[in-house]
Amino acid sequence: MKPKLLVARPIFQSVIDSLSEKFEVTSNQSDQAWTPDAWQQAIASHDAALTTGSDPINALVLGAQPRLKIAANMAVGFNNFDVPAMTTLGVIASNTPDVLTETTADFGFALIMATARRMTESEHYLRAGLWKQWRYDMFAGAEVHGSTLGILGMGRIGQAIARRGALGFGMKVFYHNRSPLDAATENECKATYVDKETLLKTADHLVLVLPYSAASHHSIGSKEIAQMKPTATLVNIARGGIVDDAALALALKNKQIAAAGLDVFEGEPAVHPDLLTLPNVVLTPHIASSTVKTRLAMAQLAADNLVSFFATGHALTPLNQVPAKSAT
Ligand code: GLV
User: Is the bond preceding 279 in cis, omega lying within 30 degrees of 0?
Assistant: First the structure.
């Protein structure tokens, strides 16, 4: 008997087809939204799940004696998982690191550029037919090359952004992280560790790439924004909830900082209504890793985690270790 696999959200048909050779697959290709009850029931009747960052796996969803043996997240972030609860309940968690690092860093840089150079604001102006003539100060933005890049969170994606900034754009790169990088990595990224206050005060462009947790909730709120330069820009490609979006909207309205670029939002897909009305914010719908090649690589790695676990008892990129529980 093949193990039963729940594919929670639409993914590439080619990946579903190859998973169907090893699993009895139930797949939500129609993208039907899960109610909490339907989700709990679906999890209760499957041995494995391929999830995305919006599908919660926690003690409530799993119940006391879960049938589920593994949840493979098609994302590097995993704040939708309660990993300690999964470990206690004997459920393996896996994510998709590395395959999206460079693509996500590209997008982070694109948002820095678009925000600093006011690209969406000026495009809206053009599309609205408001462009009558060239003007010396039209959409004059902030310099990117040669400016100071601040990076909060210095994992793989933060490091890839640092390399782009330092080596490609001649930026001075400062970062803050729970702990400093080793000297060799710092040197390779041409990045200097500073405390958070220095980072906030010195960055011309601040980019957030730290994981979401209770500890990083509202890492950037009104107090932090007040320490930033009035000419600074803020980019969030990490997770909603790391920024206090209401405080940011107010700061953007009051021109406390120049502009922001946001790919993630508190309570997404809902977006704070004030952000939608402000001209000085670039808004994108959580697409930082979204190239065809990278999304396919993420889906494939999530699938490979499932196949590997049922073949060998081990996922390829696990987030936890649980005492051996029969995989079949
Ligand atoms: C996307 O947000 C991811 O965590 O991969």
Answer: no
